[in-house]
Amino acid sequence: MSVAPAPAEAPSLASPAQRTGAELLLDALEEQGVEVIFGYPGGAVLPIYDALFSRDSIRHILVRHEQGAAHAAEGYARSTGKVGVLLVTSGPGATNAVTGLTDALLDSVPIVCITGQVPRKLIGTDAFQECDTVGITRSCTKHNYLVTAAERIPGIVHEAFHIARNGRPGPIVIDIPKDVQFERAEYVPRAQAKVRDCVPATRISITQIEQAVELMRQARKPVLYTGGGIVNSGPQASAALRTLARETGFPVTSTLMGLGAFPASDPQWLGMLGMHGSFEANNAMHDCDLMVCIGARFDDRVTGRLDAFSPNSRKIHIDIDPSSINKNVPVDLAIVADAGAALEALVAQWRARAQAAPCDRARIELWRRQIETWRARKSFSYAPCDRRIKPQYAVERLYALTRGKDVYITTEVGQHQMWAAQHFHFEEPNRWMTSGGLGTMGYGLPAAIGVQTAFPDALVIDIAGDASVQMTMQEMSTAVQHDLPIKVFILNNAYLGMVRQWQELLHGGRYSHSYSASLPDFVKLAEAYGCVGLRAEKPEELDAKIEEMLAVNRPVIFDCVVTQEENVFPMIPSGAAHNEMLFGDAEARRHEVSAKGKVLV
Amino acid sequence: MADDAPLAPVIADEGPAREAIVAAIVDNEPGVLARIVGLVSARGYNIESLTVAETDVERHTSRITLVTRGTEAKIEQIKAQLARLVPVRRVIDVSLEQDALERELALIKVVNSGEQRVESMRLAEIFRARALDTTHTSFVFEITGARAKINAFIELMRPLGLKEVSRTGVLSIRRGTGTD
Hints:
The complex is a heterodimer of chains A (601) and B (180).
Chain A (H helix, E strand, L loop, with lengths): L18 E2 H11 L4 E4 L6 H8 L5 E4 L3 H15 L3 E5 L3 H15 L4 E7 L15 H5 L5 E4 L6 H13 L5 E7 H5 L1 E2 L20 H13 L3 E5 L1 H6 L1 H14 L3 E3 L14 E4 L6 H9 L2 E5 L5 H4 L10 E6 L13 E4 L2 H18 L8 H11 L15 H12 L4 E5 L3 H9 L8 E2 L10 H11 L4 E7 L10 H6 L5 E6 L4 H10 L15 H8 L2 E5 L2 H13 L4 E6 L23 H6 L4 H5 L2
Parallel strand pairs in A: 2-3, 2-4, 4-5, 5-7, 6-7, 9-10, 9-12, 10-11, 12-13, 13-14, 15-16, 15-17, 17-18, 18-20, 19-20
Antiparallel strand pairs in A: 1-8
Helix pairs in contact in A: 1-2, 1-6, 3-4, 3-17, 8-13, 10-13, 11-14, 15-16, 15-21
Chain B lengths: L16 E11 L4 H11 L6 E8 L4 E11 H13 L3 E6 L6 E12 L2 H13 L3 E5 L3 E8 L1 H11 L4 E6 L3 E4 L6
């Protein structure tokens, strides 16, 4: 079938303009500007792979597991702002992609996942490699489709991309039965395709912007609480945030997802907020009289105990998704809008008001001084050690030695992720890729592959943990095959570190199954994969080894052996309020987590 | 979600729970009902009744009417979540609309004799319920009306030998010339 010349198919009734479903799919992807697909072939997508064989316009990255394809597509999407695409087969191909799809849903990442399906006649017969893909993925996608005829493919692809990238971005699944991939139909160009909107885009109400600016002008203790919505909105949103912060003088904090939208070197930067956020950010959130939330969603990691959350503030919430508003925290002024558009409107209105009557900066002078006293607490500091490498020190050195380079950071999930967020500092958006909402261990390595695919010459580092990295370790093989020189920087404490930390704080130090026994020798593992393995065990050798890693233009696994029982501080224990932070082990041991807090994750 | 669920995350949605009738106009495509039911159950809301059928053949749309209970905040959240679904074109909070009509049909079986039998017949007349089926010891009544009226009728039948109830779920439409 794959090499059948055109005359062999002449008996079909298809007109010459008609193409197979597989070709239609690739035509539509091409028109949507897709340059790269992360995928894994299998029986139900063979026609698509066959069509891909003769196309040079679309690059295919062969992963080693479909979860890796999904995370790679996420990494690609988050670093470029484009839609990431993955292609997997039916049955296990689709189920393996589910974790990545859910991750993309919770972190609002635009990806499109093409899955193969058994032929239409076999659907529902428990055929080989059949699963109810649209049923399984219904709750972990923004929308999904089962394509019932080839003529529908172009329209569905165009709508899928529209939905993935517009409004609150998210993952889409397009499930295509194998016989539909062979069926012939005519192409429908993007301009002619009918697309539906998820939530219709609304015009920003100027009245609400006026009210917001009025509240901002009256505030004495304001804080800008920003999130991933600003990164998703694009670079102009980050630029508008910087302008707004500069002109208002308001301090800025950010969620884990929003790091980089505001430069960490700016004096108005408070650092990340939330469970492992900075003392100054969390206290500012607790004590403020005006909270301007832009593109964040009052996640439980951010708010801590809800009934003690920022008790004395008026709250403005700007979100593109109406269902985020008043979901966890009731707000005083809700603006449903794209973060960038809203920020630009706020800047314009602030300037207009300031021209008529300049806002007195002295209003917030006391607040600024209060914040400086909190900042002086240096809440991310740790006890240095000259015999063993502290994980925080390792991240600090990595940051110091990569400054000025074109660097992208991905992470896995756990302690190393929090240390990376605390000690690696970002000046620009789209430079920080981490699994925030779902908390997917194994995200970082494939995500780094996605980033490196988009930026072949950039320095892409996956700051990893020894446990997380093993969940998708097989993707090193992908990196080697496609010459993607990612750097996997493992903070190796031989523990499931965050699990161990919680067991220490909440379960009497009974480290039930959280010790990583039988760890592989990561250096030898790197060599087995055909890449470079490095190890650092002493603080004095760390810098030289990092330099060595940076000098190699091949994939590297860096085994950074760190102190084993280090905990992430500061910390808001479960069920506590923002102003009840713990700073170190001694204090944590004294602290009793309430029964109610224990139940929370 | 039960109101007394132990140690549920603290959500600031105090205030009394109310019954809400929510209608959604949706594209009639495969899986749309599963999408709505899945969303409602995944987020822990209760569906007390649900009706669905294609209502506009030309535009290929269906009307789904569901009855749910919750605090004001929770109902707002349900509406916002429903509106987020791609095939959902519009969400209408029927119980808040001044010009909304709601109707439900119920079939109610009572098994009784003697004085109870006379009393159930008398009440059925007051409620304009029709006896669809009669034996010497039973009635099946058909009753239509607002949900509250049907609830009231069922309560009255309970001491009179109520055996079984079958209900269609609530339908809704706008009064006057306006349409959804």
